[in-house]
Amino acid sequence: MPDDRRYLILDDVVDEASAEHLALLAETEDRWKLHEEWFFSQNDFTWVRRQFEKSPIGELLPPTAALVSVGKKLFENQFNSVIGNHFTVIGHKMVPGQIVGIHNDSPEQDRGRMENFRLVFYVDRNFEDSQGGHLILFGSRNNSDVLDAVRPVFNSAVLMQLSDTSFHGVNRIKQGTRYSIVVSYWGYPMLFNSPTDQTRVRALLSRMVDSGLEEVPHSGTTFAYHLYNTFRILHGWKQEVDVCLAGLAHSLLGRRHSGVASASISAEELRRILGERAYSIVQWLSFQDGFGESPGNDSWISNSGYLVELANLFEQAIDDRDLARVLEQSHVSFISPAIKKLIEADIVRVRATREMALPY
């Protein structure tokens, strides 16, 4: 991407025939359901759903499948990510008077959310600016902090990476009918920018998706998400790629004392993907019971393993008692003051988010 705005506006997204079919799909749909909350009003209908622990809905017809595939490739290539197998395809219809207020749909505010990448595809054949219905992208919750205004013209789209700062809204419809097709994906940003590091991270993420870890329940979410979020936490704590990769794979060999079974990725394959340093941490963790020590190991391995275990605990923290334990376990001599400050800041952020519990 050209900058850090986390969105991309595109024209001519799919071939003309597919675009026409998708427009017809929206225009002939008669099952729209009014969907209103305090900040928006629109009509929508779910055509396809493939989500964790939810019954599947609909079939992927060729034009819809083409749109889903195009979006996946674009997000993987343009947003430094691996896209998983969970997605939804939802039609939106807006009529005069309807509006979507500024919000951010942040997946970081809801641990169980299954969407963090969104393709908004437009099928209005004769859009004019006087109709309203522009997608407005903001740099903050301040409605004067406008980054961009997206015109919903035929066969165009905006790609968005949802986050705490992905504020957006739709201005009021003045006339006509505004149709859009929204494809929502669960994906895994690779976070590292070095091509060598990306190759390793992508290989492991892809293998996790292929082995079905997105369908395995774990601590209130999926096993894949739990592993990924441990990786993300370690990256936020400024850890090197080997430690972060160990976090991404920390239970893939199984955990002897925790009862976590190994994944369907062999030790040999995991070692090949991770490299010796990251693999040595995962191997050390497979014998550990929480924050216990393992005599005879290299201090870098045991110290790195301790940080992975700390991130693992933080990722699953559900209340203040869990967060207090994370803070307590961070007070060991080998964790630097700089890293302790990052851990403390993460704990403050989580507590603040829970205390606010405001609609967005």
* Average pLDDT for all residues: 90
Helix content: 25-40%
SSE succession: EHEEHEEEEEEEEHEEHHHHHHH
How many angstroms separate the termini?
Answer: 27 Å
| Class from helix and strand fractions | alpha+beta
Most strands sheet: 7 strands, antiparallel
- Global Rg: 22 Å
Beta-strand residue fraction: 15-25%
Low-confidence stretches: 356-360
Strand order of the largest sheet: 1-9-6-11-4-3-2
Tally the beta strands.
13
Count of helical regions: 10
Shape: elongated
Kindly describe this structure.
- By secondary structure, this protein is α+β, with helices and mostly antiparallel strands.
- The protein is built from ten helices and 13 strands.
- The strands form three sheets. The protein has a seven-stranded antiparallel sheet. A four-stranded antiparallel sheet has the order 5-10-7-8, with no helix packed on it.
- Strand 7 and strand 8 (146-150) form a beta hairpin.
- 38% of the residues are buried.
- Residues 356-360 have low confidence and may be disordered.
Q: What does the secondary structure layout of this molecule look like, with pairings?
A:
Layout: E1 7-10, H1 16-28, E2 33-37, E3 40-50, H2 62-78, E4 81-94, E5 100-103, E6 117-122, E7 135-138, E8 146-150, E9 156-161, E10 168-170, E11 178-189, H3 195-210, E12 217-218, E13 221-222, H4 223-236, H5 241-248, H6 267-274, H7 276-285, H8 299-315, H9 320-329, H10 337-356
Antiparallel strand pairs: 1-9, 2-3, 3-4, 4-11, 5-10, 6-9, 6-11, 7-8, 7-10, 12-13
